[in-house]
TrEMBL record:
Pfam families (alphabetical): Peptidase_C48
Residues in Ubiquitin-like protease family profile domain copies: 28-192
InterPro entries: Papain-like_cys_pep_sf, Peptidase_C48_C
Keywords on record: Hydrolase, Protease, Thiol protease
GO molecular function: deSUMOylase activity
Family: Belongs to the peptidase C48 family.
Encoding gene per record: Senp2
One cellular-component annotation, GO: nucleus
A single GO BP: proteolysis
PANTHER family referenced in this protein's UniProt entry, alphabetically: SENTRIN-SPECIFIC PROTEASE 2 (PTHR12606:SF11), SENTRIN/SUMO-SPECIFIC PROTEASE (PTHR12606)
Protein name: SENP2 protease
Protein backbone atom coordinates (compact mmCIF):
# COMPACT_ATOMS: atom_id res chain seq x y z
CA UNK A 1 0.00 0.00 0.00
CA UNK A 2 2.73 2.43 0.98
CA UNK A 3 4.60 1.96 -2.32
CA UNK A 4 1.39 2.51 -4.27
CA UNK A 5 0.78 5.74 -2.36
CA UNK A 6 4.33 6.96 -2.98
CA UNK A 7 4.12 6.38 -6.73
CA UNK A 8 0.74 8.12 -6.84
CA UNK A 9 2.17 11.14 -5.01
CA UNK A 10 5.15 11.31 -7.35
CA UNK A 11 2.84 11.09 -10.37
CA UNK A 12 0.76 13.99 -9.00
CA UNK A 13 3.90 16.14 -9.05
CA UNK A 14 5.54 14.91 -12.23
CA UNK A 15 3.10 13.83 -14.92
CA UNK A 16 0.49 15.79 -16.85
CA UNK A 17 -0.31 19.48 -17.27
CA UNK A 18 -0.35 22.24 -14.58
CA UNK A 19 -4.07 22.87 -15.18
CA UNK A 20 -5.13 19.20 -14.76
CA UNK A 21 -7.78 18.93 -12.04
CA UNK A 22 -6.70 16.40 -9.40
CA UNK A 23 -9.43 16.91 -6.82
CA UNK A 24 -12.79 18.61 -6.50
CA UNK A 25 -14.80 19.15 -3.29
CA UNK A 26 -16.02 21.90 -0.92
CA UNK A 27 -16.77 24.12 -3.97
CA UNK A 28 -13.04 24.05 -4.73
CA UNK A 29 -11.01 22.54 -7.55
CA UNK A 30 -7.38 21.61 -6.95
CA UNK A 31 -5.09 21.51 -9.98
CA UNK A 32 -1.70 19.89 -10.44
CA UNK A 33 -0.21 23.39 -10.13
CA UNK A 34 -1.86 23.75 -6.69
CA UNK A 35 -0.68 20.28 -5.62
CA UNK A 36 2.89 21.19 -6.67
CA UNK A 37 2.98 23.81 -3.89
CA UNK A 38 3.25 20.75 -1.59
CA UNK A 39 6.65 19.87 -3.07
CA UNK A 40 9.62 20.41 -0.74
CA UNK A 41 10.00 24.11 0.13
CA UNK A 42 6.88 25.07 -1.84
CA UNK A 43 4.60 27.82 -0.51
CA UNK A 44 1.10 26.48 0.07
CA UNK A 45 -1.60 28.51 -1.68
CA UNK A 46 -5.15 29.41 -0.63
CA UNK A 47 -6.70 26.48 -2.49
CA UNK A 48 -4.58 23.91 -0.70
CA UNK A 49 -5.17 25.57 2.68
CA UNK A 50 -8.94 25.84 2.19
CA UNK A 51 -9.26 22.31 0.81
CA UNK A 52 -7.39 20.88 3.80
CA UNK A 53 -9.60 22.86 6.22
CA UNK A 54 -12.57 21.36 4.39
CA UNK A 55 -11.20 17.86 5.04
CA UNK A 56 -10.83 18.65 8.75
CA UNK A 57 -14.42 19.94 8.95
CA UNK A 58 -15.66 16.84 7.10
CA UNK A 59 -13.84 14.54 9.54
CA UNK A 60 -15.28 16.42 12.53
CA UNK A 61 -18.76 15.21 11.57
CA UNK A 62 -17.76 11.69 12.61
CA UNK A 63 -18.45 10.45 16.08
CA UNK A 64 -15.78 11.11 18.69
CA UNK A 65 -14.46 14.35 17.19
CA UNK A 66 -15.14 17.90 18.37
CA UNK A 67 -17.49 19.81 16.05
CA UNK A 68 -15.28 22.04 13.89
CA UNK A 69 -16.07 25.13 11.83
CA UNK A 70 -13.37 26.60 9.57
CA UNK A 71 -13.38 30.04 7.99
CA UNK A 72 -11.64 30.33 4.66
CA UNK A 73 -8.32 32.06 4.22
CA UNK A 74 -9.88 35.31 2.97
CA UNK A 75 -12.07 35.80 6.06
CA UNK A 76 -9.61 37.55 8.36
CA UNK A 77 -8.35 40.11 5.84
CA UNK A 78 -11.96 40.89 4.85
CA UNK A 79 -12.90 41.25 8.55
CA UNK A 80 -10.00 43.67 9.08
CA UNK A 81 -10.92 45.81 6.09
CA UNK A 82 -14.70 45.89 6.57
CA UNK A 83 -15.44 44.90 10.22
CA UNK A 84 -18.32 42.56 11.09
CA UNK A 85 -20.80 44.01 8.62
CA UNK A 86 -18.56 43.02 5.71
CA UNK A 87 -18.46 39.33 6.69
CA UNK A 88 -21.81 38.73 8.39
CA UNK A 89 -23.18 37.06 5.26
CA UNK A 90 -20.33 34.54 5.39
CA UNK A 91 -22.12 32.66 8.17
CA UNK A 92 -25.59 32.81 6.60
CA UNK A 93 -27.55 29.78 7.74
CA UNK A 94 -24.77 28.73 10.14
CA UNK A 95 -24.61 29.18 13.89
CA UNK A 96 -20.88 29.09 14.54
CA UNK A 97 -21.62 28.95 18.29
CA UNK A 98 -23.03 25.44 17.91
CA UNK A 99 -19.49 24.20 17.23
CA UNK A 100 -16.70 23.29 19.66
CA UNK A 101 -13.76 24.67 17.72
CA UNK A 102 -13.45 27.43 15.11
CA UNK A 103 -10.37 27.49 12.87
CA UNK A 104 -9.26 30.77 11.30
CA UNK A 105 -6.31 30.34 8.90
CA UNK A 106 -4.67 33.73 8.40
CA UNK A 107 -2.51 34.96 5.55
CA UNK A 108 -0.17 37.77 6.59
CA UNK A 109 1.21 38.83 3.19
CA UNK A 110 3.91 36.13 2.95
CA UNK A 111 3.24 34.07 6.06
CA UNK A 112 0.50 31.66 7.22
CA UNK A 113 -0.68 31.56 10.84
CA UNK A 114 -3.66 30.04 12.64
CA UNK A 115 -6.14 31.38 15.13
CA UNK A 116 -8.23 28.87 17.10
CA UNK A 117 -11.41 29.64 19.03
CA UNK A 118 -12.38 26.96 21.56
CA UNK A 119 -15.99 27.70 22.44
CA UNK A 120 -16.01 25.01 25.14
CA UNK A 121 -13.22 26.67 27.11
CA UNK A 122 -13.81 30.26 25.95
CA UNK A 123 -10.25 30.59 24.69
CA UNK A 124 -8.78 32.24 21.61
CA UNK A 125 -5.26 31.06 20.82
CA UNK A 126 -2.87 32.23 18.15
CA UNK A 127 -0.41 29.79 16.56
CA UNK A 128 2.59 31.16 14.68
CA UNK A 129 5.44 28.86 13.61
CA UNK A 130 7.76 31.89 13.52
CA UNK A 131 6.93 32.77 17.12
CA UNK A 132 5.38 36.20 16.47
CA UNK A 133 2.68 37.41 18.82
CA UNK A 134 -0.87 37.89 17.57
CA UNK A 135 -2.62 39.49 20.54
CA UNK A 136 -4.24 42.15 18.33
CA UNK A 137 -5.53 39.36 16.03
CA UNK A 138 -7.09 37.57 19.02
CA UNK A 139 -8.80 40.82 20.05
CA UNK A 140 -10.11 41.44 16.53
CA UNK A 141 -11.68 37.96 16.42
CA UNK A 142 -13.15 38.30 19.93
CA UNK A 143 -14.83 41.54 18.83
CA UNK A 144 -16.17 39.70 15.78
CA UNK A 145 -17.57 36.94 18.02
CA UNK A 146 -19.27 39.53 20.23
CA UNK A 147 -20.96 41.15 17.24
CA UNK A 148 -21.84 37.83 15.62
CA UNK A 149 -23.40 36.58 18.86
CA UNK A 150 -25.45 39.74 19.30
CA UNK A 151 -26.59 39.79 15.68
CA UNK A 152 -27.34 36.09 15.16
CA UNK A 153 -28.42 34.90 18.63
CA UNK A 154 -29.26 38.11 20.46
CA UNK A 155 -26.85 37.01 23.20
CA UNK A 156 -24.20 39.30 24.67
CA UNK A 157 -20.80 37.66 25.06
CA UNK A 158 -18.94 38.64 28.20
CA UNK A 159 -15.46 39.52 26.95
CA UNK A 160 -13.96 39.23 30.46
CA UNK A 161 -14.82 35.50 30.54
CA UNK A 162 -12.53 34.87 27.57
CA UNK A 163 -8.82 34.02 27.64
CA UNK A 164 -6.70 35.29 24.74
CA UNK A 165 -3.23 33.86 24.27
CA UNK A 166 -0.45 33.90 21.66
CA UNK A 167 1.34 30.56 21.83
CA UNK A 168 5.02 30.92 22.77
CA UNK A 169 7.98 29.35 21.00
CA UNK A 170 8.35 26.88 23.88
CA UNK A 171 4.69 25.80 23.58
CA UNK A 172 4.50 24.88 19.90
CA UNK A 173 7.02 23.67 17.29
CA UNK A 174 8.70 26.32 15.13
CA UNK A 175 9.58 26.12 11.45
CA UNK A 176 13.25 25.79 10.49
CA UNK A 177 12.98 27.34 7.01
CA UNK A 178 11.11 30.10 5.19
CA UNK A 179 8.51 27.99 3.43
CA UNK A 180 6.82 25.50 5.79
CA UNK A 181 4.39 27.89 7.54
CA UNK A 182 1.37 26.64 5.56
CA UNK A 183 2.08 23.03 6.45
CA UNK A 184 2.50 24.02 10.11
CA UNK A 185 -0.92 25.74 10.05
CA UNK A 186 -2.58 22.66 8.50
CA UNK A 187 -1.01 20.34 11.05
CA UNK A 188 -1.75 22.63 14.02
CA UNK A 189 -5.38 22.56 12.83
CA UNK A 190 -5.28 18.78 12.32
CA UNK A 191 -4.05 18.04 15.87
CA UNK A 192 -6.33 20.64 17.49
CA UNK A 193 -9.39 19.36 15.63
CA UNK A 194 -8.74 15.93 17.20
CA UNK A 195 -8.12 17.39 20.69
CA UNK A 196 -4.58 16.00 20.48
CA UNK A 197 -1.44 17.59 21.93
CA UNK A 198 0.82 19.12 19.26
CA UNK A 199 3.81 16.82 19.25
CA UNK A 200 5.23 17.04 15.71
CA UNK A 201 8.56 18.68 14.83
CA UNK A 202 10.03 20.48 11.77
CA UNK A 203 11.55 17.11 10.74
CA UNK A 204 8.03 15.81 10.00
CA UNK A 205 7.36 18.43 7.31
CA UNK A 206 8.57 16.50 4.21
CA UNK A 207 6.43 13.52 5.29
CA UNK A 208 3.39 15.73 6.03
CA UNK A 209 3.66 17.38 2.61
CA UNK A 210 3.54 14.04 0.79
CA UNK A 211 0.76 12.75 3.02
CA UNK A 212 -1.31 15.87 2.29
CA UNK A 213 -1.00 15.25 -1.47
CA UNK A 214 -2.57 11.80 -1.07
CA UNK A 215 -5.24 13.10 1.33
CA UNK A 216 -6.30 15.93 -0.98
CA UNK A 217 -6.43 13.73 -4.08
CA UNK A 218 -8.46 11.08 -2.23
CA UNK A 219 -10.46 13.61 -0.18
CA UNK A 220 -9.76 11.52 2.88
CA UNK A 221 -7.53 12.11 5.91
CA UNK A 222 -5.21 9.25 6.85
Amino acid sequence: LFQAMESEISAAFDSGEPEDILSRAFKLTVTREDICTLQPLGWLNDRIMNFYMGLLVERSKKEGYPAVYAFNTFFYSKLCSTSHKGVKKWTKGVDIFEHDVILVPIHLRIHWTLLVVDLRQKTIKYFDSLGQKGDHICKTVLKYLEEESKEKRNIELTASEWTLHSMGTEEIPQQSNGSDCGVFVCKFADFISRDKPIIFTPEHMPYFRRKMVWEIIHQQLL
